[in-house]
Design goal:
Chains A, B: InterPro entries: Glutathione-S-Trfase_C_sf, Glutathione_S-Trfase_N, GST_UstS-like_C, Thioredoxin-like_sf. The structure is a homodimer of 230-residue chains. Chain A is α+β, with helices and mostly antiparallel strands. Chain A contains ten helices and four strands; from the N terminus they run βαβββααααααααα. Chain A has a four-stranded mixed beta sheet, covered by helices on one side. In chain A, helix 1 packs parallel to helix 2 and helix 1 crosses helix 9.
């Protein structure tokens, strides 16, 4: 049966950008499971699957409804153990939580500043009225105050990727010799930036850039199928 | 047969401080393997096991000699598969490389500044003449220039632990429900700081502090057996 993925979009439904939804897209493709992407804009989220979650991604797999990208990956791993593993064992599942914590506290924190206006501009009209006050409340600052930090965050972004850059001296993927969900976690953050923002964040010749290029080619180029923001 | 661990010490052989050696101490205890700690000061390292490595830890296990903390952990995992796992599977082994890269590029980079003078003061006399020019060459700065950054690094250290702090909301160990080598990697950095430095780096009530207290109690209090620098 085809799994339904409820996935965040802006005004252009063909350009999904949510980092957490991208993680799930890659996880479903990694498992080789047939799935259908159902676009949802911010203000439609409360109606998804009877209001099961305040956020997307949400998947429906037959009678099962699961929210939260990590919980979805764990559900897929447990439900489809004979398909390619997303974690490479219990240790890998636990350590993917560390990668998630690093990605969110370091990369997302910066991208929330860098891409804020670009995200707002790409939303559906009904979402724009929701997005600004919601994000200003979450960050405790006005859009204008946040924008003052944008250039510094762009300039500091490359250094934040140092742990990944150092690790890539040992192996080609966070998962080792092939990608695992932990790769998709970091991919999600950088794909979000790639789809919504024109900020120059990845440099040619950097091992992280090479890794990201390999990521967007995975699973028949799922990531590359959405063009970079220009 | 008892495994021999060649472990870095300063003037006081009862206060081993090397983060990489501490990782191996914990890994050997985790595997429940009998081992003997052989103290080595910096200038003795070239003579260890016939000069097999420029650094310690080095272990001898019967006829096998292995250098480098991660390679030692991988060797123990492969050689003693029936004892408690250090990685929790292939994915965990791969992701431990990410944790290592994060710990070294973030925590070690800061601790190399914070603890530099305190390490130098604790070395054996013959090592002191080696240590300063070696570290000044590695860091590209004089001890005096490095010392200028010390206070700022102390003040910024807590924020560098944010990824671990965030992860601890999901689970008590980097390894999940119980510690794995990835925990020992980060423990090694903080135990190094604890043994050599009086800088206040961990705050009471912080989830990272609680995790570290759990770490030094592991394996019959191996970490706690060396008192904190005062």
């Amino acid at each position: 049966m085809t799994i339904v993925l409820h996935e965040l979009v802006g005004a252009d439904e063909a350009r999904p950008f949510s980092p957490h939804c991208w993680k799930v897209v890659m996880a479903l493709a990694h498992k080789g499971l047939p799935f259908e992407r159902k676009p949802v804009c911010f203000t439609q989220v409360p109606g998804v699957e009877g209001g099961v979650s305040k956020t997307v991604p949400v998947i429906r797999d037959g009678s099962q409804v699961v929210a939260d990208s990590f919980m979805i990956a764990a559900y897929l791993e447990e439900t489809y153990p004979d398909r390619p593993s997303l974690f490479g064992g219990d240790g890998g599942q636990a350590m993917a939580r560390f990668v998630e914590a690093w990605s969110q506290s370091t990369l997302h924190a910066a991208l929330n500043v860098i891409a804020l206006h670009e995200i707002a501009d790409r939303l559906a009209p009904e979402d724009q009225a929701y997005f600004r006050p919601s994000r200003e409340a979450r960050l405790g600052k006005t859009f204008e105050q946040i924008a003052e930090r944008r250039q510094a965050e762009i300039e500091g972004f490359g250094a934040k990727l140092t742990p990944l850059r150092v690790m890539l001296k040992s192996q080609p993927w966070i998962g080792g010799s092939s990608p695992l969900f932990a790769d998709y976690i970091v991919f999600g953050a950088l794909q979000w930036a790639r789809v919504v923002s024109s900020a120059p964040l990845l440099e040619a010749g950097d091992a992280v850039t090479d890794w990201f290029e390999r990521c967007i080619d995975l699973h028949d180029g799922l990531g590359r199928a959405v063009a970079a923001a220009g």
